[in-house]
Amino acid sequence: MYNLCVPLFTDAERAFLSAVSRLAYCNPFLTERSDFERAALGRDYVAGESIWSASVENPDAPSPNVDRVHARLLPVLDKVRARLPKAANAQPGELAIYEDAVHHFLYQRYYAEFTANQTKPANWRFYESFEQDWHHYLPDTARTPEAARFETAAQAAHFFACFRQVQRAFQHIFFSIVGNSMPAARLRASVWQSVFTHDMRRYGRVLYGRMQDFPTLITGPSGTGKELVARAIAASRYVPFDAARLRFADPPGETFIPMNIAALSPTLIESELFGHRRGAFTGAIGDRKGWLDACPPAGSVFLDELGELDLSIQVKLLRVIETRGFSAVGDTARREFAGKLIAATNRDLHARIRTGHFREDLYYRLCADLIRTPSLREQIDDNPAMLRDLLLFMVRRAVGPDNGEAERSLPEVEAWVRDHLPPHYAWPGNYRELEQCVRNVIIRKSYAPIPETPQPDSPADTPFFQSFRRCELSADEVITHYAALVYRQTGTWEEAAKRLGLDRRTVKTKVEAFLASATKPATS
């Protein structure tokens, strides 16, 4: 018989494990993580930055509170585990708290093993040890009839897969999206939600196998890392684990398939995306499988510059999202898209809808999971010290991370930026511009940003417009000035070329000529 007088928790254990339960399923990139760690550790909590971000100078530095919570958790779980057979009066809520704490403990215990097996060939034999720990702390009634009933007791392999996914997602988000500012922290938290939703318990129960049904739309200015965000999401998909064979069902080949809409013609986009049959159009000399067809269930197709997609292809894409079905160009056979769709744009889609260039129904199919990447200026305004970290990050990319040259080169780059750019320079090209600025300073000890577009009281106040009205400009000068303006607004040679109806090399030549004339010293 059970001893009905044995409680499952002491008051102190209940308070501690309740905090760990919340910590186990929180978004690690929100400030609530610090609140839960503080509640669990009390006076042993190590105060620090509330924003959890990779330090550029010491990227592998762990949070000290992670290890402190883990060390304190083991003896508490062992005590509670010993009481389980006698604690028949344990309430379902108490069992759920204990269960969450076990999940957190086992994830941290095997975190290093998951990290070590990120590269192939991976060895997942440590699952056998994991499974033993799992069934020890969460006994299954099928194995131990007198044990308490736990919702996840029989799901060791599934949670092993979930833990691997959590580890991969954390690594990709933490190290890809850098920046110790609140806008950067909110971006990391938003990407985490895109992978796991805001309710990780529900995700673990049912949504892990349905996230491909939720397309993701990433918006933000050009050069703010939208493709980095897309890659982090794509690299963090759930992959089932086969406990009998001790291996994950990792798909072979490429699982992230990017396509830049602005760089391709509508015909080529349709062929690349949906595939085509031989003879479907001029030049189709054989059958071709499209990316939607080739994408595995755990893969992702990334459509960059979605705002430039031709309306006729938008109709077909809408059907893919609604039914998962499509047909290759020149074929009637139905094919199925099994992966996840991720799209990005720097265009104002609401404005594109109003002008008839983007379908409203397609937008509403895409906006359920919406991520916005902040501008570089937003992040620096929130934390000015972040500029130095990013400069060091870019210098390391330019000269190499492990030879000490980046640290020697950083003062020169910092000094040039401080002495030659305004204190609140807008960085209109965002990270892309920052990187090119660093590379220019390293190579030439100079950088010529595209001049700000004047904002006079009247357009007639600009020297260019005055010369234009007096008919003093050549056609080449007009095109050169306009090409620079379009490139400044779009941020890419491809998009500027598309808007101007020119070859990208021509646009590049015009913009470089404009920069040369704008930075040429005046002569008397």
Provide a short characterization of the protein structure:
By secondary structure, the protein is an alpha/beta fold. 51% of the residues lie in helices and 7% in strands.
Explain this structure to me?
This protein has 524 residues and is of the alpha/beta class. It is 51% helix and 7% strand. The protein has four domains: 11-173, no CATH class; 219-374, P-loop containing nucleotide triphosphate hydrolases (Rossmann fold), CATH 3.40.50.300; 377-444, no CATH class; 459-519. The protein contains 23 helices and eleven strands. A five-stranded parallel beta sheet has the order 4-7-10-1-11, with helices on one face. It has a two-stranded antiparallel ribbon with strand order 2-3. The longest helix is centred in the N-terminal third of the chain and has 21 residues, at 156-176. Residues 455-459 and 519-524 have low confidence and may be disordered.
Descriptors:
51% helix; Rossmann fold; disordered C terminus; single chain; five-stranded parallel sheet; alpha/beta; two-stranded antiparallel sheet
